[in-house]
Amino acid sequence: MDHTHFARRPLGLQGPIFPQEILDQIMSHVDDRQTLHSCLLASPALLAGARRGIFRKVTMRPWQLGFAQEFLSVSHRASCVRHLTIEGSLNSVSDTPFTVELLSPFNKLESVSIARLVRWESVSTLPIQCSSVQSLTIAECHLPSTLDVVQLICSYPRLTTLCVRETFWDDSDSTTEFLKTARLPPIRELDVWSVKSSLARIWLLPGVHVQLQKLYACAATYTDALLWIDMVERAGHHLIDLTIIDDNLSFWNSDMDLVE
Asked: What are the backbone dihedrals phi and psi of residue 51, each rounded to the nearest 5 degrees, phi first?
């Protein structure tokens, strides 16, 4: 069995989505030689029947703290996970209850996705800290400041792919000072949509080495477009794929090789 999917449930419902005997029957088909690649579960009861499963992709939500605790109750599970998503709710008024201590067993992640977390006191409260992460997605979040965005990116030193969509923050002037002692990771692919142009300015600061190979950006204004074009110039011969979409959703796309 290569993939196992379980039905989603409306928010707020409690208890298992299937009777326990059905869950037991499902899990009876999983043996030690097989792998459950995805784990998107609404009930700890379902997870409890999958103690032999090795999960590669896990989604956790703040209102399912019991699920997270049940998942981590089996010691080997977290170290097998390669793709972790923390998904909040746009209606949430509180920070995620997932702490660094709770999620520290996830120590071999390849990708992290953070979605719909609308209230962070600071990015230091982000619970996912793993140096092996190579891909980061931030979607529909509200970060405190530009500095928090930079600190978040720099917390993953091996990061090569960054996707930021519909995420907002307040501009701050302390980014330049921070980057005097910190270094941006070697990001090769950048995908941005509905974000502040101050994200582009990060790569235009003095001393920042732009290594982008692929850039996909939505420019809401002419000024934004100029900033992304400045990034293209800084990237130089590294850039091979470029797409910039304007506010009217007409676009120009160039599969280019800038190496002379």
From this structure: -65, -20
Measured CA to CA, the distance from residue 224 to residue 197 in angstroms comes to: 6
Neighbours of 79 (CB within 10 A): 12
Runs of H (alpha helix) within the chain: 20-27, 44-48, 65-71, 77-80, 100-103, 146-154, 175-178, 198-202, 222-235
Alpha-carbon distance of 11 to 223, in angstroms, equals 41
Spell out the domain ranges in the chain.
1-133, 167-260
Strands (DSSP E) contained in 88-240 are 111-115, 135-139, 142-145, 161-165, 168-170, 189-193, 214-219
pLDDT digits (tens, 9 = 90+) for 184-218: 899 999 998 877 777 888 888 877 878 889 988 88
CA–CA gap between residue 182 and residue 145 (Å, rounded): 17
Tell me the pTM. 0.74
- Token duo for residue 46: 């379902």
Task: Indicate the helix (H) or strand (E) that contains 57.
Answer: strand 55-60
Residues pairing with 112 in the sheet:
84, 136
Encode pLDDT of 47-91 as tens digits. Answer: 555 555 567 888 877 767 777 777 787 778 888 888 888 887 666
Q: How far is CA 232 from CA 80, 166, 188, 243, in A?
A: 38, 22, 12, 11
Cβ neighbours of residue 31 under 8 Å, at least 6 residues apart? 52
Helix-strand-coil percent breakdown of the chain, rounded to 5? 25, 25, 50
The pair phi, psi for residue 221, each rounded to 5°, is -135, 170
Do residues 102 and 78 lie in contact, with contact meaning Cβ atoms separated by under 8 Å?
Answer: no
- CA neighbours closer than 13 Å in the CB half-sphere of residue 41: 27
